[in-house]
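Fold it.
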Amino acid sequence: MSSAAADSPKSFRDVWLISIGHALTHWYPATFYLLLPLIGKELGLSYSEIGLVMTCQYIAGALSNLPGGMLVDTVGKKGLLMALSLSWVGLPYLLMGFTHSYLMLLLCVSMVGIGNNLWHPTAIPTLAQRFPNRKGLAMSLHGMAGNVGDALAPLIIGALLATFTWRQIVVMNAVPGLFMSGLLLVFLGTIQFGRKKIVKVESEGQGVTEYFRGLSALFRNRTLILLTVGSAFRSLTQTTLLTFLPVFLAYEMGYSPLWVGGCMFVLQAAGFAASPIAGHLSDTMGRRRIIMTSMGMTAVVLVFMAFAGRSHAFALFIAVLGFFLYAIRPVMQAWLLDSTPKNMGGTSIGLLFGVQAVGSSIGPIVGGSIADHYGLMSTFYFLAGTIVIANLFIFFVPAQNEEVAAIKPASDNA
């Protein structure tokens, strides 16, 4: 796609449309994190059982990401796939409002994992292709919208819980997702309407033989492997934190749902502020420097939180943690797409999020087990260690200019 096309007003409109859809894919899980302590109390769940809920969601995501990326790169029709993904995320939460079974709860969150992880292999490569010279900024706008969903959901839902039950809220929550799915289908579907004629969107698929040739080369890409494994440990840290931070605030600190929602809002709002800053700096200063600095600071803040214990200082550290933890998500995505052929973008992102989902599935159940045996505070020490491990993998990623030179012929042939 030409640079002119990439910078067109229509393209920019699509960026915001995709980003709003992304915000909703984060709104639903962020809502669930706030509801999880209430669900856990109603069903009488242990910390390990609470952790298993999120583990099931991310195992399903791990299994669905790579097939989702393959589907995107071979079939195309990204508007349809994004609409399907958003619907698939919202409807299982609706079903949760009518179940009293722990097994049905696990089934619903597994369905969410499948739908939520179809979004990224579709949306992220689309934005990268439209803004080839500003991947970091484009990824950060998309990521920033996710932070908006993550930030507003606990704040708004925390306030609504003063009036409505969690079951009523999951039913009401289905409406915005279905509405946005319709908009995505209209504006980003297979057929788009011009001013006087119907204009077909260019084909984005490729042949099966060509695809598997590219897939074979993809698995030999050292940058791809190290980035995905490092990102898995970062996601393990993030998901375990999101699972047990609300539980800690509710059970140990005695916060009401409104105050828990406020703390989660602060965590995500800090990420909202950090995302475009990190994305822009990574376009100018390099991806590695931004990622390693942010991960290092994340580890330091987690240790400080563990030392703070049940004091009010614990809550103050939440904003600092959010700034550094969420700043690196779009930068890692941009670095991955810098280092892989553009016709394999869906599979590359699918692989990234699939391996991330493996890490995310391990974290909550391990964190819950540690909390059951050694106390909930010990989980935060565990998370400081996992983010340090993530940083070690980033350290061994090849120099960016060497990797780009190595994959340039493949990119030119895409």
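The beta strands are 191-193, 198-200.
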